[in-house]
Design a protein that fits this description.
Blueprint (H helix, E strand, L loop, with lengths): L1 E10 L4 E3 H7 L4 H8 L3 E3 L7 H16 L8 E5 L11 H7 L7 E4 L5 H14 L5 E9 L9 H6 L2 E11 L8 E8 L7 E2 L21 E2 L1 H23 L8 E4 L4 H11 L10 H4 L6 H11 L8 E8 L3 E8 L7
Parallel strand pairs: 4-5, 4-6, 11-12
Antiparallel strand pairs: 1-7, 2-3, 6-7, 8-13, 9-10, 12-13
Bound molecules: coenzyme A.
């Protein structure tokens, strides 16, 4: 069996945080943030709102977009860096709140590549005939793990959620077909993106320095890795499925930095106009980034059923992944 995307839903928490608001709190400026990252606004959840809340809303909308009832979903895969609790996973709670019944539901931890990891796993479960439909969600509340003393990460990350419904099909001819995926990792660089404390290697105690409880990133080193790894992954996938770069209608890259997206398009030889960009509005939403960018392009009227879409992402781990899709005849909600 093959997997096809039959629904897409998103949710952003209502609170919009402008560069001006952050410039009043940190030693930064709208000019620095815009020119170095391309970000103008991002959404942050109100205190008390958790990743599972955003994921549930996006999941509900994806189900509606697919025209499915809760009982139609066989599996939930939720990608997140910011689960509601260190234990248990967030996916079972989301499945329960969506009324999906006693279906398998589990989290994937691949940081900003998480959505593409979850998509690949959903596709594999369908191919193995373990599921006829999979709800794949990427959801984050990075605002809960940002160091309030770190101006660099604080201006970059935003909260949000995006979800797709995958369904089994016997062929890949019709729009919506997920034609292939590619995943990779390199743990030798695990320290470039991390929350140092709070795991089994460095449990949090009353004496843990506050900075070690927050998200950290070595920006310039990550930047270089991101362009190279997403470029390699996307190229490998293109070869695998027999697409050439000129035939890609839309490049949907992880929205980590507008300059990375431009460099990536150049590396892949895809005209920069075919790159989908919504980082200016939402910032880096990590595992929610790719589905939010897809929905953004669809709402702008840029996507026609059958268009060839190349998605690629990179994140902590290090991890990376790519997926190829023909755009389905759906309306994202
Ligand atoms: N406002 C103003 N100045 C800032 C700042 C901010 N918010 N954040 C950092 N700076 C300063 C630095 O202190 C540094 O100053 P110095 O030259 O006096 O030391 C200067 O800006 C340049 O810092 P640097 O970290 O080299 O900036 P950069 O141009 O690399 O941009 C990132 C930083 C994080 C935006 C960029 O490295 C990036 O996007 N990295 C990749 C992120 C990514 O791919 N993530 C994917 C997985 S999540």
């Amino acid at each position: 069996m093959h997997a096809a995307v039959i629904g897409l839903g998103t949710h952003l928490p209502p609170r919009l945080v402008t560069n001006g608001e952050l410039a009043a709190r940190f030693d930064t400026s709208d000019e620095w943030i815009t020119s170095r990252t391309g970000i103008r606004t991002r959404h942050w959840a109100e205190p008390g709102t958790a990743t599972g809340d955003l994921a549930t809303e996006a999941g509900l909308r994806a189900l509606k977009s697919a025209g499915l009832a809760p009982g139609d979903i066989d599996v939930v895969v939720l990608a997140t860096t910011t689960p509601d609790h260190p234990c248990p996973a967030t996916a079972p709670d989301v499945a329960s709140r969506l009324g999906l019944g006693p279906v398998p539901a589990y989290d994937i931890a691949a940081v900003c590549s998480g959505f593409l990891y979850a998509l690949a796993i959903g596709q594999a479960q369908i191919a193995a005939q373990q599921a006829g439909t999979v709800l794949v969600i990427g959801a984050e509340t990075y605002s809960t793990i940002l160091n309030p003393d770190d101006r660099t990460t604080s201006v970059i990350f935003g909260d949000g959620a995006g979800a797709v419904v995958l369904a089994a099909r016997e062929d890949t001819d019709r729009p919506g077909a997920l034609l292939g995926t590619h995943l990779g990792s390199d743990g030798a660089h695990k320290d470039l993106i991390r929350i140092p404390a709070g795991g089994s290697r460095y449990p949090t105690t009353a004496y843990t320095p506050e900075a070690d409880r927050y998200f950290t990133m070595e920006g310039p080193k990550v930047f270089r890795q991101a362009v190279v790894r997403m470029g390699e992954s996307a190229t490998t996938l293109l070869h695998r499925i027999g697409w050439v770069a000129e035939k890609v209608d839309h490049l949907v890259g992880h929205q980590a930095n507008a300059r990375i997206l431009t460099a990536l398009a150049g590396q892949l030889d895809i005209p920069v106009e075919r790159t989908v960009v919504n980082i200016d509005r939402v910032g880096n939403t990590s595992a929610a980034s790719v589905p939010l960018a897809l929905a953004h392009a669809a709402r702008q009227g840029r996507l026609t059923p059958g268009d060839r879409i190349l998605m690629t992402a990179f994140g902590g781990g290090l991890t990376w992944g790519s997926a190829a899709l023909t755009w389905p005849d759906i309306t994202p909600l």
